[in-house]
């Protein structure tokens, strides 16, 4: 099975390294000629300093070449997914696309799988998500992820072909649950980062994680997900990692909000756009998501951290 990866960011590159370590031929595509040349000619990446790459990992700026593989992993920011798919001229008939991006499209309100199916209706779509930092995967540390695909035979093929001795994949047919767990946990990670950055303490963070998880499950269930999927790696597992570690860009972004500091503008923070998209879905479907709504307002500067906390703490008392 030929494999390519679209996206030379840290996560896409890390996946390429992990898969190529087993002597599999893997091609990675990027639009940045410098990043591509570093991978192709020097077997290194500016996004993963110090990590040596296998010789079976090649790099290209030819998007059509990358899209011609039997299995294509897409690891670009969720807000760039539509643009990248539209740039691929091939219909990709019979291709298995594995989406590694976590988010909700802000413009359309669609999840990444539905968006992909609209643009490339002839492909089989899967989602790869769960608690994982790029550096851990690139350095060969044990990692477990969820692989979601509505077509069970394809799920089993992908599970076998994409698993490695230290990258363990668990399958599910619940695409909606897997993609929304991975997307919505970033919103809660921003909230938790802001909580810690503002000095509100670990008890407040635990409360935000718990009530945030309830919001994730509420919205995902309303949109067709199975609640048990959110309790797995793609929901609770990913939430735990991103809300408790400064290795998470979304958590670090929240920290900067809580501290009143500027955040590095070149770093992609998926949760900021996802918070706004989820807030729109909350209004559209009449689903109460107070933490998500407050986080969306934080990211746009419409609320301060103190105002957000006051807003949440002044809500009517209720049963859990």
> Biggest sheet: strands, sense, closure?
8 strands, mixed
- Could you state the CATH homologous superfamily of the largest domain? NAD(P)-binding Rossmann-like Domain
Order of helices and strands: EHEHEHEHEHEHEHEHHHHHHHH
The number of E-state strands comes to 8
Could you say what the CATH architecture of the largest domain is? 3-Layer(aba) Sandwich
Q: In percent terms, what proportion of residues is strand?
A: 5-15%
Total domain modules: 2
CATH class of the largest domain: Alpha Beta
Within the largest sheet, what's the order of strands?
3-2-1-4-5-6-7-8
Distance between the termini: 48 Å
Computed structural class: alpha/beta
Rg is 19 Å
Measured as a percent range, the helix fraction is 40-55%
Shape: globular
Mean pLDDT: 96
Total count of helical runs of at least 4 residues:
15
**Any idea of the CATH topology of the largest domain?**
Rossmann fold
Are there runs of 5+ residues with pLDDT below 50, and where? none
């Amino acid at each position: 099975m030929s494999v390519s990866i679209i996206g030379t960011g840290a996560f896409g590159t890390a996946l390429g390294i992990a898969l190529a370590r087993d002597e599999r031929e893997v091609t990675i595509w990027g639009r940045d000629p410098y990043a591509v040349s570093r991978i192709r000619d020097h077997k290194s990446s500016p996004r993963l300093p110090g990590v040596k790459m296998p010789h079976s990992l090649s790099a290209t700026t030819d998007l059509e070449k990358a899209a011609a593989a039997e299995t294509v992993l897409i690891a670009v920011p969720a807000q760039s997914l539509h643009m990248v798919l539209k740039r691929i001229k091939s219909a990709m008939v019979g291709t298995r696309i594995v989406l590694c991006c976590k988010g909700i499209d802000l413009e359309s309100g669609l999840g990444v799988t539905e968006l992909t199916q609209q643009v490339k209706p002839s492909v089989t779509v899967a989602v790869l998500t769960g608690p994982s930092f790029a550096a851990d995967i690139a350095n060969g540390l044990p990692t477990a992820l969820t692989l979601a695909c509505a077509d069970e035979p394809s799920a089993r093929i992908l599970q076998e072909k994409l698993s490695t001795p230290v990258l363990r994949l668990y399958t599910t047919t619940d695409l909606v649950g897997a993609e929304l767990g991975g997307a919505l946990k970033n919103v809660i990670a921003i909230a938790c980062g802001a909580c810690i950055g503002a000095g509100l303490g670990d008890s407040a963070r635990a409360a935000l994680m718990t009530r945030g998880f309830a919001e994730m499950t509420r919205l995902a269930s309303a949109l067709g997900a199975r609640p048990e999927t959110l309790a797995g790696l793609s929901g609770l597992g990913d939430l735990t990692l991103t809300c408790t570690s400064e290795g998470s860009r979304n958590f670090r972004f929240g920290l900067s909000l809580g501290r009143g500091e500027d955040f590095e503008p070149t770093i992609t923070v998926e949760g900021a756009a996802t918070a706004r998209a989820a807030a729109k879905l909350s209004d559209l479907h009449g689903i109460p998501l107070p933490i998500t709504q407050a986080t969306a307002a934080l990211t746009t500067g419409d609320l301060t951290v103190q105002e957000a906390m006051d807003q949440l703490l002044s809500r009517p008392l209720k049963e859990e």
